[in-house]
TrEMBL record:
SUPFAM superfamilies attached to this UniProt entry: Voltage-gated potassium channels
Organism lineage: Bacteria, Pseudomonadati, Pseudomonadota, Gammaproteobacteria, Alteromonadales
Keyword Nucleotide-binding assigned: no
A GO BP annotation: monoatomic ion transmembrane transport
Protein name as annotated: Two pore domain potassium channel family protein
Keywords: Ion channel, Ion transport, Membrane, Transmembrane, Transmembrane helix, Transport
Highest rank taxon of the organism: Bacteria
Entry membrane topology: Multi-pass membrane protein
Length: 161
C-alpha cells in the first residue's frame, strides 16, 4: 500500500484506489473550505449596509449554494471580498462535488471500470505465458528424445560389425 493510503498496487501493477478514504478526504476538504470561506464572507459582509448576509449561517448558506451551483438568490455578496469568496467556492466546490459524484457513479454503477478489465487481461496474459512456457519445455524435452532416438538409430550395432 502506498504511504498516503490513497491506493495500493496489486500483483499486476494496477493501482486500486481507496475510494472510501478519497471520498472522506474530499468531504472533509469541502467542509473546511465552506467553513473558512463562509467565515471570510461573514467578516466582509456583515457590517456593510444593504448586505443580505446578516449572520454566519447566512454566509455558510451562501457558500453551500455557491458550491452546488444552486444559488437561490436569497443571500448574495455585495463586497469585492464576498464576491471573490463566492467565486472561489464556486470553482472549488464544483470541482470537489463533481469529483466525489464521479467516484460515486463509478463505484455504484461501474462505468468503465478499467482496473477490473486490466486485471482480468493481465491474469489471462499471465496464464497464456505460463502455458507457453510449459509447452516450450515439453517441446525441448521432445527434441532431446528425438535426437537421442536418432543417435541410437545411427549407432552401429553388434550385428553391423
Amino acid at each position: 500500500m502506498e504511504k498516503s493510503q490513497l491506493y495500493r498496487v496489486d500483483d499486476f501493477g494496477v493501482k486500486n484506489y481507496n475510494y472510501g478514504f478519497i471520498a472522506l478526504l474530499s468531504f472533509a476538504l469541502f467542509a473546511l473550505i465552506n467553513i473558512s470561506l463562509g467565515y471570510l464572507t461573514f467578516m466582509a459582509e456583515t457590517n456593510v449596509e444593504g448586505s443580505p448576509v446578516k449572520t454566519y449561517s447566512d454566509a455558510f448558506w451562501l457558500m453551500l449554494m455557491s458550491s452546488t451551483t444552486i444559488g437561490f438568490g436569497d443571500v448574495y455578496p455585495i463586497t469585492l471580498i464576498g464576491r471573490l469568496t463566492v467565486f472561489v467556492m464556486f470553482i472549488l466546490g464544483v470541482g470537489i462535488l463533481g469529483g466525489a459524484g464521479a467516484i460515486f457513479a463509478n463505484k455504484i454503477f461501474g462505468f468503465a471500470d478499467t482496473n477490473i478489465k486490466n486485471r482480468e487481461l493481465r491474469m489471462q496474459n499471465f496464464q497464456i505465458i505460463r502455458q507457453n512456457d510449459r509447452t516450450y519445455t515439453k517441446l525441448l524435452e521432445l527434441e532431446e528424445k528425438m535426437a537421442s532416438l536418432l543417435r541410437d538409430a545411427h549407432k552401429p550395432t553388434d550385428i553391423d560389425k
